[in-house]
Amino acid sequence: MVSSPAYDPTAYDPPAAAPSSAPAVLRPGTLVAGCLAVCLAQIGLVLPAAINGVIQRSLGTSGAELTWISDAFLVPAAVLALTFGVVGDLYGRKKLLVGGALLAAVGYLVSATADSAAQLITGQALSGIGAAALFPASLAVIIAGTPTPAARARGLASWTTALSLGALIAPLLSGAVVEHTSFHWAFAATGVLALATAVAAWRLTTESSAPEGRSLDWPGQITIALALLALLYGIIQGPTDGWGSVTVVGSFVLAAVMLGAFIAAESRSKSPMLRLELFRNPAFSASAAMAVIGMFGFLGGAYDLSIRLGVIQHQSPLRAAIPFLIIQAVTPLIWPLLVRLLQRVGPGPMLVTGFVSLAVAQLWLRAVPVHETGIPALLGPLVLNGVGFGLVVAAITAAAVNVVAPHLTGMAAATTSLVRDLGQTLGPAVVGAVALAVATDQLTGSLGTAALTPAEHGTATAVLEGGGPLALHTADLGPLSAKLAPLTERALADGYADVLLLTAGACVTAAVIAAVFLGVRPRAAAQLEGSRS
After folding, report:
1. Which range is least confidently modeled, 191-205, 224-238, 330-344, 430-444?
2. What are the backbone angles phi and psi of residue 503, rounded to the nearest 5°?
């Protein structure tokens, strides 16, 4: 699915002390290895978007399993990146690059040989842990080798370009490969790239580290990871296991307990992964809430689009990749304009406009009939989605760092990166849960009034109860499948269309927060008024 960078280039929080081991100048080999590593990590983040439908049909996954396949990568990439940044500072960024790439390769090997949803989810989790190491390490080796502001700007520009390139490559890679082979080969091809990245990192990267003043916050890392996993389990499994089941209720209770433990751990830690005092600043708290809610709305809408294209419409992988390519291509095309806008009008107006654009794009997509499979009908909302995404991703970190003291900007950027990624992780989970619950209720009623024999009704009900509406939509039940196809398509289309109201509402909420706490007036006008007063 479409995603913003899992690790923000402004979110690296370097130690205050001088690095104990850093290259005097950025060598070309280090730059190449760092850019290759972040490109690989971003490819993995976006890879499943164009092939969700093929995966679902090949493995017969339920809706919950399909959601886990995406979130198994997103969760570790979100919650482990900050900790891996400290690990690299302590023990060496080159080692972390090589280890992260090798672990990602192992994960892709597991995914490439998967014959069950459980194995694919395991492979995605391993690759996600590897990506969580690659995002901060790739940035850190470049920063460590750029002693001057000009050199650092060039290095960051190369890193950001490589990240954007990964987002563009991923849907084309998965779509083109799976167009002619099984989905396994998309993961196999990415695994080969991971091995090449590990070799490049080992042969080309100059080692650097900065252990002074750095320490690991294991209590904070463990409690936040358990809290998020428990929360996601409850959300994803709720429609399948029942919202009142012991496991689902227990997971929500565990999430609340672990969240409390995380807050307690961070308030006592000498080197917390998240500084709670930042949230005493109302403007920063509002920026964090805006990041969670807005990114939930954006990635939830992107996941909804992937299900529409691949699962409901049964579009080929390559055709399903084109809409995501359009969305991802807009940001690089308008990036110079976005940089100028950030300097001239500031993050507030950009965020308000960006989130409103995302909301309008999702409502526009909802209005496009599900039987419309051509790109022309989708082009308007896709381009508007890309414009909104570009405005948001360019301004969201600046909004947070502009409202805190200068010595806290690194931690503020890192915290914004963390909460933004948490919002992205919740997107597929909540969208899948709500849409499938709506579709299940609708199908339960329509099966009761459909012209089916008792035996056919029993078979359809058993499949629905066992695997959910997605399983019933793609199951091969012989002549019965033809009878059920209009019912399942309508129920899924309605469910995933209705949930776009939720994601659009989240984007509108984020826009309101931005307007209230950051303002909608351009920076130049505000500065002029301030000088007159």
Report:
1. 330-344
2. -70, -40
pLDDT at 408: 66
Query: Which amino acid is residue 421, in one-letter code?
Result: D
In sequence order, the 6+-apart residues with CB closer than 8 A to the CB of 295 are 4, 420, 421, 423, 424, 427
Q: Measured in Å, how far apart are the chain's first and last C-alpha atoms?
A: 48
Alpha helices in 475-522 (DSSP H): 479-518
The one-character DSSP state at 371 is T
Work out the average pLDDT over 429-434.
Answer: 90
What is the average per-residue pLDDT within 411-440? 83
Count CA within 13 A, CB hemisphere, residue 494: 14
Residue length of the chain = 533
Amino acid found at 451: A
Q: Which amino acid is at 154?
A: R
C-alpha 440/C-alpha 436 separation (Å) is 6
Q: Which tops the pLDDT comparison, 514 or 28?
A: 514
Name the DSSP class of 312: I
Per-residue pLDDT, 155: 76
For the CA atoms of 54, 60, 62, 65, what is the dihedral angle to 10 degrees?
Answer: -70
pLDDT tens per residue across span 473-511: 888 888 888 889 899 999 999 999 999 999 999 999 999
pLDDT at position 185:
95
Span 193-206, mean pLDDT?
94
d(CA 491, CA 437): 10
Displacement of CA 417 from its chain's centroid (Å): 11
Average pLDDT (79-88) is 82
Helix %, strand %, coil % of the chain (to 5)? 80, 0, 20
Burial class (CB in 10 A: 0-12, 13-18, 19+), 196: middle
Token reading at 223: 């409690």
β-bridge partners, 209:
21
Cα 459 to Cα 463, 469, 474: the distances in Å are 6, 13, 14
Asked if 236 contacts 436 with a C-beta cutoff of 8 angstroms, the reply is: no
- Inter-residue contact 201 to 101 (CB < 8 Å): yes
179 vs 170, 324, 339, 377, CA distance in Å? 14, 16, 37, 23
Note whether 295 and 426 are within 8 A (CB).
no
Mean pLDDT (the chain) is 85
Angle at Cα 290 formed by Cα 409 and Cα 332, nearest 5°? 75
Are the C-beta atoms of 15 and 214 separated by less than 8 Å?
A: yes
- Say how far apart CA 331 and CA 526 lie, in whole Å: 27
Q: Is 210 exposed, middle or buried (0-12, 13-18, 19+ CB in 10 A)?
A: buried
Structure confidence at residue 214 as a pLDDT band (50, 70, 90): low
